[in-house]
Each structure stands twice: as C-alpha cells, then as structure tokens.
Write a structure and sequence with these properties.
Blueprint lengths: L4 E5 L20 E5 L2 H5 L5 H20 L4 E4 L10 H12 L3 E5 L4 H13 L4 E4 L8 H9 L6 H12 L3 E2 L2 E2 L30 H13 L16 H14 L1 H7 L16 H6 L4 H13 L5 H25 L18 H4 L5 H13 L4 H15 L3 H11 L5 H12 L16 H7 L20 H12 L1 H5 L5 H8 L3 H21 L7
Parallel strand pairs: 1-2, 1-4, 2-3, 4-5
Antiparallel strand pairs: 6-7
Helix pairs in contact: 2-7, 6-12, 8-11, 9-12, 11-12, 12-17, 14-15, 15-17, 15-19, 16-17, 19-22
The structure holds flavin-adenine dinucleotide and iron/sulfur cluster.
C-alpha cells in the first residue's frame, strides 16, 4: 500500500499540535508510533517510567484514531519489532512506501543525531521539523544568550514574562516585583494538611502495559505498583485542574519544604505529563494566572509556579541545546567518586537520603528540593562523578528526559558545568536540611554535631568540599564569606572535620552504605 506521508511520532511527542502532525492529510497519511525496547534500556529506566510512557503512547494512538488519523502502532511485544526506532521506521517505510517521512526533532541530542542519519538510509526523503511546543525556540534562546557573559535564569525569565504577557501590567510585572522567591521558602509546618493528588485507576490498556513491563523489566529499579498516574490527555488535564484548585495556594509558601512520609506536599506532579506532551506549558501557566486574578491563590504562589515553567524549564532546555554534546562530559570540579550503592537500595542511616531515595523507588518522584539539596547536595559534597550521577537521575525519575535532566543534574546540582546554570554551587551543611524539613528529628545523626561518629555527615563533607575548592570559590562573591570562615577556622577543628569526612567517605566507598553491620 502507498501512503502519502509517514508521520513518525516519538514517545514524548504526544501532542495533537505536534509539528509532525500539522497539515496531515488524514485520508492519505499514516501516523507511525513505535514502542522501542532500546529506548527503555539505554539507561535502565524505572519500571514506572517505562509503563507511564508506553501507556501514554497507547492512549495517544487512540486519541489520534478518534480524531480520524490512520495509526500504525508497533507494540513492544510485537514479534517482528526490531526494538529500535530506526529499524522500525525502515520496516514501516517498506510497508507503506510513503512519499516522505515527517518527524519532529527529538528532545535528546543522541536521538537527533540518529534522526539526521535516517534520510541516508531510507528510500524516501525525511523531513525534520522543529519542536515548537516550547515558549522559547532554540534560535531565540541562542540570540538571547549570544552577547551575555553569564547566562542567568532570572533575566531570561523576565524576557519570557514580557513575551507571554503572563502576570504583566503593561511592561511592568504585576505586584511591582518579578520574583517572589524569598516568600516561597517556608519550612514545613507540623499539622498542615496536604491535599492528596488525584489518583487515576489504570484502565484495561494500562493494565496490559503494566503486565508487560512487570514481566520484561522486572530487574529494573523501582516499584511498578501502585500505578495511578494520568496517561490520557483528559486525565492529565483533570490533574492540572485539581492542582490549581487544591494545591497551588500552598505551593508558593512551601515549595522548598520537606517532610518525612510526605512525598508530594503541594507540588503539582505535572512534569511527566508536560514532558511527554499531554499538557501544554503555556495553557497551564494561564490557568495559574487566572487563579491569581480570581483571588483563589496569592501572587507568590502563581508567580512561583509560572517561573518554574516559563523560567527554569525553558532556560534549562536552552542551555542543553546550546552546550551539547560536550555538556554531558562536564566535570569542572574533577569529581570522580563512584555513586554509592545506597542510591539504589536506599539503605543509609541518613534519614534525609533514605526518605528521598525511598520515595524515588516507590513513586519515581522526588520534588525539586529533595533532588537538589538532598541527593544532589550529598553527591556534590562527596565528589561523585557527575556522569554517573546524571545516569542515575535519568533512570530513576518519571519525568527524566535528557534535555531537562542533564542541565539540572550536571549544571544546577553538581556545578560541573563551571557555573553556566548556577552562579554558585548548591552546597550546604546539615543546617539547611534541618531548617527546611523534619528529617533530622528521627535521624541517627545529629545535625548540630560537626565531628565524631554521630555528627551529621553533611557538616564535615561541606567543609571538606570548601577546603578542596577553596581557591576556585574564594573569588566567587556568593561563596567568599564561607571560604573566609574556613580560613579563620582553628587548625585542630579543620583537621577533625577533614578526618571525619574521610572516614565517612571511606566507609561508603567500601561498603556502599554508612550503615554499620549488625
Ligand atoms: P513542581 O514543583 O510542581 O513545579 C512545577 C513545574 O515546573 C514542574 O512540573 C516542571 O515542569 C517545572 N520545573 C520546576 N523546576 C524545574 C527545573 N529546575 N527545570 C525544569 N523544569 C522545572 N525536571 C524534569 O522535568 N525532569 C527531570 O529529569 C528533572 N531532573 C532534575 C534533576 C535534578 C538534580 C534537579 C535538581 C531537578 C530536576 N528537575 C527535573 C526539575 C524539578 O525537580 C522537577 O521538574 C520537579 O521536581 C517535578 O515535579 P513537579 O511536577 O511536582 O514540579
Ligand atoms: Fe540528613 Fe544530617 Fe539531618 Fe540526618 S542529621 S537527616 S543526615 S541532614
């Protein structure tokens, strides 16, 4: 059979507005969708993440069929499936003999390189189209970045506010300030009720996916069940509405808070739906703006949420494409330690890490401050190899796609890019975690102790980190005060801190955990 165009849709391109679907001739064109095993295993993704992407793909195929498209869908368990995107495209071209293939550029450098090679291997031309589901196109980001000595998210964010008109009063920000971050750092208050996020029971098709993933990827990290994520557009939109109605009001104040046993607090849990294309970022921001305009939420809540999406999310993407492919090899602090085993098992006496890793295993989710100031901060202080850490974050989180994960991990959390994303390393002692969470209350370590076997490991590791990078950070205006404190420290105390840090690191290097054998 001869088709008009073959329109190839990838697993994170589940948007009806996708450039590869635009102007399709529904009578002649065919949409190709492929479940490729190679994409599930090039890093060993969390079981829940694989199930989420496959279930959302199958739901999108239905959405397209309902809208009148012809869809050629290759399932993971199809016996002829080559498990490779390029291989399946070649088979589909042989099946349909289309005049051309249209595909939207992938969100990952590795795949774009592959896409660029398809044209040479196929018997028909391949048209690569921009992914315009973002607020800032890559050439626009590059033009903004071109004449700047340093890229700072805050200035990019202001440009995006002006561009979208979100929370703007003419050319000025609503409320007279661009950024209400200082009001978004309240520690967790005991007794505050956190409304539960909506949970969506898996339909029969999602159940089939769960069975398949449970069988094929049994030895991948993480728990497959319970599975309650939205996988259809309708459910993702319902989840977004629920967040705006019930949790956005609390999101602003408690964005940075952490509480033992509370995985979600007032976070939106919308990153996975956004990243695969079930939600549109601008529509979501307009909903948050409308909630502020109607008086349902405060300005710091709406602004804080909108900033994450039109600010951080877009900025991070711009950095990724501007600095790839070399970005993945960045290691400005020359960190080489292997990732401790407890990142996979969660077996550590450090309550903060056990909580963050435990919920990551269960839910494939940790919120931003857990990723940045607990697992990220520990890795930074311990000097973990950023490439190995990048692979961990890419595998374990439901929302992890390289364009967004890599600059957050390598840049923001590890400072391995030498300061492209962040103006200073997000390094802190146990004091920050103590202030923002209740983790320390049940920890075997004491956050107020600096040396000795019961001292919080973050404390000694923090001073060791400063000591190792003293020369580099002395010149950084945001770090120089701490370097001065280190310089003024009594030599005995400095020695005791360094000894405590080395003893602790030796233990995790040799045993994979700080836990003492019973
Ligand atoms: P909320 O707290 O409700 O925030 C709202 C939305 O803002 C998110 O859904 C997300 O789309 C966006 N957002 C917030 N912060 C960021 C950010 N720094 N970069 C990009 N978007 C942001 N986010 C991912 O989407 N995928 C990742 O793989 C990823 N890896 C990360 C790794 C590290 C080391 C760190 C520090 C952050 C990472 N983030 C990543 C950013 C952020 O942690 C997640 O977007 C957020 O935790 C998702 O949960 P949520 O939807 O409940 O977000
Ligand atoms: Fe984490 Fe230290 Fe607090 Fe324990 S005492 S929870 S290790 S910050």
């Amino acid at each position: 059979m001869t088709a008009g165009q073959l329109r190839f849709v990838l697993g994170d391109q589940l948007s009806p507005t996708l450039s590869a679907l635009r102007d399709a001739d529904k009578d002649r064109d065919v949409v190709l969708m492929v479940e490729a095993g190679a994409e599930a295993t090039y890093v060993r993704h969390h079981k829940k993440k694989i199930a989420f992407v496959l279930a959302a793909m199958r739901a999108f195929a239905h959405e397209l069929r309902d809208a009148g498209f012809r869809v050629d869908y290759v399932q993971l368990d199809d016996p002829d499936n080559t498990q490779d995107l390029g291989g399946e495209l070649a088979r589909a071209v042989a099946r349909w003999r289309p005049a051309a293939v249209s595909v939207t550029l992938a969100g990952e450098y590795r795949l774009v390189a592959e896409q660029r090679s398809w044209g040479e291997k196929l018997t028909c031309p391949v048209q690569l189209l921009e992914d315009d589901r973002f607020i800032c196109a890559i050439p626009e980001f590059n033009a903004w970045a071109a004449d700047r000595r340093q890229l700072r998210m805050e200035f990019f964010y202001r440009a995006m506010r002006r561009k979208t008109g979100l929370l703007m009063d003419g050319d000025e920000p609503v409320g007279g300030r661009w950024n209400f971050d200082s009001e978004n750092r309240k520690p967790a208050r005991p007794g505050l009720a956190w409304p539960d996020p909506p949970r969506f029971a898996p339909g029969p098709e999602t159940q089939e996916v769960l069975d398949l993933v449970g069988e094929r990827y049994a030895n991948h990290f993480g728990d497959l069940l319970p599975f309650w994520l939205p996988v259809t557009r309708r459910d993702a939109e319902a989840a977004a509405e629920d967040f705006i109605a019930n949790r956005l009001a609390l999101f602003g104040d408690y964005q940075d808070a952490m509480i033992a046993g509370e995985a979600f607090l007032a976070h939106s849990l919308l990153s996975s739906a956004l990243n695969v294309g079930l939600l549109d970022p601008l529509t979501l921001c307009r909903q948050a703006e409308a909630a502020y305009c109607s008086g349902a939420v405060s300005l710091n809540a709406a602004e804080g949420f909108i900033r994450q999406i039109i600010g951080w999310r877009e900025f991070i993407r711009g950095v990724y494409w501007r600095h790839m492919p070399g970005y993945l090899r960045s290691n400005s602090l020359a960190a080489t330690r292997a990732l401790p085993q407890f990142y996979w098992t969660g077996e550590t006496d450090m309550t903060c890490l056990a909580e963050a890793i435990g919920q990551t295993r269960r839910e494939a989710y940790a919120h931003h401050i857990q990723r940045l100031m607990v697992t990220g901060n520990f890795a930074l202080l311990a000097g973990i190899d950023p490439a190995e850490l990048h692979e961990w974050y890419l595998s374990v989180y439901i929302d992890a796609f390289e364009w967004v994960e890599a600059p957050n991990t390598i840049g923001m959390s590890q400072y391995a890019d030498g300061g492209i994303v962040a103006s200073k390393p997000y390094a802190s002692s146990g004091a920050y975690i103590k202030r923002m969470s209740n983790y320390c209350q049940t920890c075997r370590y004491d956050p107020s102790e600096r040396t000795g076997p019961d001292a919080c490991p973050f404390n000694a590791l923090y001073w060791r980190f400063l000591d190792r990078h003293r020369a580099r950070f002395a010149a950084n205006p945001r770090m120089s005060r701490m370097v001065a404190a280190l310089n003024a420290m009594a030599p005995d105390l400095r020695q005791a801190l360094l000894a405590r840090a080395e003893e602790f690191l030796n233990r995790i290097d040799h045993h994979g955990t700080d836990k003492m054998p019973c």
